[in-house]
């Protein structure tokens, strides 16, 4: 039992890190926004079903719809439309590293929108490192800035900003609605928006599924969407949001590994360097939360082992 939580933590990282290669394989065949819409059609049912089985409150109250609508538009629709579109042009590892800037951008937006949040000079430096890491990953060529890969990085960065903004808005409107119910209703809102966006963009609505695309879809729905969220909700109760957010920094590792094995994607040195810079930026921005986390674990270990100062 002692190793269950670390094992589940790694399992969530492996499952969600592998979604990047799965999306990459899917959007080679299925139009990206339509692919995202179809995914959340199914995952919404799974997540709300999980909430119902666990006996959580399902029905939102009137004051909870603002957060649901904001999350549906920003976290589900806009984030995934941009992410899936961007993954047409970049490798799985690059997309995962750029998405890893979400906690950093969230902290910056919180400073702007939530008066009680203060980044400080060190936090501003961390924010700058987050964007610097993204620039290193993009590795722009001054002679050819408008490449497909540069477009892909910009789209994924836009997805990260949309998610971060949505997270801050939800933080301002957070109520007692259980996380699973909130996530499920956001998907119910976001999926139709993705369908409308897909049609508006002129994407073909009839798709000839290849075995690779079908396998990717199956992985993204019951495994990443069903099992992944189930494990996430379990770990959220065990660890809390600060520690669980660290999973974001394992996603690029699994994305790179699975992308290399399954899709033959190469891992560029700039991607690794950018990831290191982003991780340092995260540590600076979240330094207080990480310090509290380490202190809490140290105190817990002291109580268990019976150190002298606890006797």
UniProtKB/TrEMBL annotation:
GO terms for cellular component: membrane. The chain crosses the membrane at residues 35-53, 65-83, 89-112, 119-138, 150-170, 182-201, 213-232, 244-263, 269-285. The keyword Ion transport does not apply. InterPro entries: AA-Vitamin_Transporters, EamA_dom, EmrE-like. Keywords: Membrane, Transmembrane, Transmembrane helix. Its main location: membrane. It is a multi-pass membrane protein. Residues 7-137, 151-285 form the EamA domain. Pfam families: EamA (PF00892). It is found in: Membrane. This is EamA family transporter. It comes from Natronococcus pandeyae.
